[in-house]
Design brief:
Layout (H helix, E strand, L loop, with lengths): L1 H27 L3 H20 L10 H29 L1 E3 L6 H29 L4 H15 L3 H5 L4 H29 L1 H17 L2 E3 L3 H23 L11 H25 L5 E5 L14 E5 L11 E6 L2 E13 L2 E7 L16 E9 L4 H8 L1
Antiparallel strand pairs: 1-2, 3-4, 4-8, 5-6, 5-8, 6-7
Helix pairs in contact: 1-2, 1-4, 2-4, 3-8, 3-9, 4-5, 4-7, 4-8, 5-7, 7-8, 7-9, 9-10
């Protein structure tokens, strides 16, 4: 009962700190003192309070707790690597944070104090309440900590459907996936593996001078799939070592988590791929003008590229009125600083009547999969 009471107290303190930082301190001012002195002091007091409490035993066995920090670092590193790969497609931008020695030190105190306090709180709350309904507790705590990741003004600013979708896809869902993994790590190994995982991500965001400038679709894909894969890796490592049988029905709960996670990864990847939210996308060939290179019913995989890299001989997809056309570039023209592409179907005798401007270009064909496009054409004509 004492640990549960302490868990309630920590939960109340976290909520109070969130309200103070986001509602009370802004009325005082957004100066250096309130941001970089007062906030770390608040987090430091919470850390001191939690460390004075009796230690709670995580659910994982000793050997598992020894291995989890290494695995958490690997998952965090893989997520950073995936973000960098996304940046190769979408580009990079300069970090907004200071990189002077003084700026790095101040940011380290600012970020580090909040990170340690949040993960100590997460681990204590989870291991205080997870003796029953473990999965439900993990989900609720992950949702709560996700909400703490945004200011109230961010939620109030939602109204437009597009803004809501962009927020949920690019920020909300990835942060929720990150918190679900952090909660699972804290449940099994305490605060250390959760700090290791989230610490890698925070260090990359705050202390890397160049950051990937990703579209919300790429952010959603990487920020959701990598934590989901990490969740599976942690679950696989902990399989056979956790004593959850008395807390949950282990076989049904564990297998359903794995199954639904895998299914969610596959569905999400296919959805983002088909909607064109990735740097590459599928498109069905709806005519025979590109025969024999591309035939009716083929499925091409096109890449979103800058018009500057398109050359003669490339096959591009472009919009012509209300119709999407896939033809080959036979000439690149530049007139008064403007670029145009002259296109032609391989099976056509003459070039297309109208030149194609860079704004009309959707992508450049990379790969052809014969006959697979018939499925799309069937539903399109149905």
């Amino acid at each position: 009962m004492e640990t549960r009471r302490a868990g309630y107290i920590i939960l109340g303190l976290i909520v109070a700190i969130y309200l103070v930082i986001n509602l009370a301190l802004p009325h005082i001012g957004h100066g250096f003192i309130t941001t970089y002195v007062v906030q770390p002091m608040i987090w430091g007091l919470l850390i001191f309070f939690i460390l004075r409490l009796p230690r709670l035993q995580p659910a994982g066995k000793w050997q598992l707790r020894q291995d989890l920090p290494k695995l958490a670092l690997m998952i965090g590193g893989f997520q950073v690597f995936s973000l960098v790969i996304g940046g190769l497609f979408c580009g990079f931008g300069k970090s907004p944070y200071s990189f002077t020695p003084q700026g790095i030190f101040i940011n380290l105190i600012f970020v580090g104090s909040a990170l340690v306090a949040m993960e100590l709180s997460r681990a204590y709350i989870i291991n205080s309440f997870s003796k029953r309904h473990t999965i439900l507790i993990l989900a609720l705590i992950a949702l709560l900590f996700t909400m703490f990741g945004f200011s109230p003004a961010r939620f109030m600013g939602l109204g437009e459907p597009l803004a809501t979708v962009t927020f949920l896809g690019g920020d909300g869902i990835p942060l929720l996936a990150e918190n679900l993994l952090a909660c699972f790590l804290a449940f099994l190994g305490g605060p250390i593996p959760a700090i290791a995982y989230r610490g890698v991500l925070e260090a990359f965001e705050w202390f890397c001078p160049i950051l990937p400038d990703l579209s919300w679709g790429i952010k959603a894909l990487v920020g959701t799939i990598v934590p989901a894969v990490g969740f599976l890796a942690v679950q696989s490592l902990s399989s056979g070592q956790l004593r959850i049988a008395r807390r949950e029905r282990r076989v049904r709960g564990g297998s359903s988590i794995v199954g639904w996670t895998v299914a969610g990864i596959v569905v999400l990847a296919l959805l983002w791929f088909s909607l064109g939210l990735l740097p590459f996308y599928p498109s069905a060939v709806a005519g025979g003008s590109m025969s024999p290179a591309l035939n009716l019913g083929d499925m091409v995989i096109a890449s979103k590229v800058s018009p500057d890299v398109i050359r003669e001989g490339d096959i591009i997809e472009f919009r012509q009125g209300e119709v999407m056309v896939i033809h080959r570039v036979i000439e690149v023209q530049e007139t008064e600083g403007s670029k145009f592409f002259i296109t032609k179907g391989d099976a056509n005798r003459v070039a297309d009547m109208d030149p194609v401007s860079p704004k009309q270009v959707k992508g450049r064909v990379m790969l052809n999969v014969p006959k697979l496009g018939w499925v799309t054409l069937f539903f399109r004509s149905g």
